[in-house]
Design a protein that fits this description.
With about 425 residues, the protein is an alpha/beta fold. It is built from 10 helices and 21 strands. Strand 6, helix 8 and strand 7 form a beta-alpha-beta unit.
């Protein structure tokens, strides 16, 4: 952390100590005196903030400024509990737009581009965040929102959209429809900014090839600002994050110990400039690593690697911890298999049985049985357990037009 970052960090600590009932209570319980924090290394002595605590603060327990300074709220979906409400000041909104505009610039997007925005608007941060960055940059926003694929494609052609923004699952839906309808020559897309979901190289290649675009991973989460706090550049060797607004740590998710650069662990984020709901050492549950060294692109912003999974989407099969990122890596090496997969975990006679369903390209040279054999063989060699593999044609597994994750079904027999 630079001296400038440490000064911002000290200001943030003083602010939450004075103005945040949420953090005043945390500091009192932990016996923390922020005036004793004299070096950046001492951040490890400060308590983490968890998603569960944010839910308990519902609705506005995180607010750290008077009501008259709040201009907007956003919220998580609340699908697994109470939603998390995040209040924003005008400065927070401006800072977010600045980071989003930087993301577009890093991706080579200019004011001449026409940006079709397919994520949802409303309480979710995605749609309005991309639009604010688009307007800050000076490009044309096409605020479509989610779904209605027929209209998406029509507007894409009529308005000659050059950039598509969306989740990986919906970008795949659009790519498949473009291919199916023979529209490749009718669309003018050049770039795609894809986020909100963890996705593998197989899917990335399919979307890139079928839409004929360059793809950029973007990262963010509602609790911090929303999408736009990190993005990859033309080198595609990790995502640059904005260390003048945020401080990133990687920890061991079990012990809480801070890990050195290069080691994979849970991403922890501290906001340095946020007013409405500043967060100290927020545990994102996302698994990644800080990439050592400077990127070949020349940008000074540090990098994290692509998200390989989450601490809460790990599954344990036959005593072995398995993350979706490991499955992506295995499928990437199997010739003829597509990007989509589904995991089903049965518990039969006291034993775990894992079935991996995948799609294969029927036009390829590899037979279905060979693909299934190769998946089972690689799984055994790489992860150390025996599974059942079932492959079927393209389009046989579920698709989603909205935010989704890999489908993992648990069945008791």
């Amino acid at each position: 952390m630079s001296r400038g970052q440490f000064e911002l960090f000290k200001e943030m600590l003083a602010n939450v100590s004075a103005n945040s009932p949420f953090y005043r209570e945390k500091f009192q319980k932990s016996g923390i005196d922020v005036n004793e924090i004299t070096s950046m290394e001492m951040i490890a002595e400060l308590p983490f903030t968890t998603k569960e605590e944010l839910r308990q603060a519902y609705p506005l327990g995180l607010q750290s400024v008077p009501d008259e300074k709040i201009v907007r709220i956003h919220s998580s979906s609340g699908t697994t509990g109470k939603p998390i409400i995040i209040p924003y000041t005008a400065q927070d909104v401006a800072a977010w737009a600045e980071m989003m505009a930087r993301c577009f610039e890093i991706a080579g997007i200019t004011p001449l581009d026409r940006i079709q925005i397919t994520p949802g608007y409303g309480l979710w941060t995605a749609g309005i965040g991309f639009q604010a960055g688009c307007e800050k940059l000076g490009a044309m926003a096409v605020p479509m929102g989610p779904g209605n694929t027929d209209k998406q494609l029509q507007m894409m052609m009529d308005l000659k959209s050059t950039v598509i923004i969306g989740t990986s699952s919906y970008a795949l839906v659009l790519a498949e429809e473009v291919e199916k309808r023979g529209l490749r020559s009718e669309i003018k897309l050049k770039k795609g900014v894809i986020g909100s979901e963890r996705w593998g190289e197989k899917m990335r290649q399919r979307i890139r090839n079928e839409l004929g675009i360059e793809i950029y991973d973007i990262y963010g989460l509602t609790e911090i600002y929303g999408p736009g706090i990190a993005i990859d550049c033309d080198c595609h060797e990790g995502m640059h994050y904005f260390d003048d607004f945020l401080y990133f740590e990687i920890i061991d998710s079990v012990t809480g110990e801070v890990l050195p650069e290069g080691e994979v662990g849970e991403l922890v984020i501290t906001t340095l400039r946020k007013e409405g709901a500043p967060l100290l050492r927020y545990r994102t549950r996302d698994l990644t690593r800080i990439i050592p060294g400077k990127c070949a692109c020349g940008l000074s912003y540090p990098r994290i690697d692509r998200i390989v999974g989450r601490t809460d989407d790990m599954v344990k099969v036959k005593g072995v911890n398995i993350y979706p990122g490991q499955i992506d890596e295995i499928l990437r090496e199997v010739e003829g298999v597509s990007s989509e997969y589904q995991i089903i975990i049965d518990h039969v006679n006291g034993k775990d049985v894992m079935t991996l369903k995948a799609e294969y390209n029927s036009d390829g040279d590899t037979e279905r049985e060979d693909i299934e054999y190769n998946i089972v063989d690689l799984f055994k060699k790489r992860i150390g357990i025996h599974i059942i593999a079932e492959v079927s044609g393209i389009g046989s597994l579920p698709r989603s037009e909205k935010k989704s994750k890999r489908i993992i079904d648990y069945r008791q027999n």
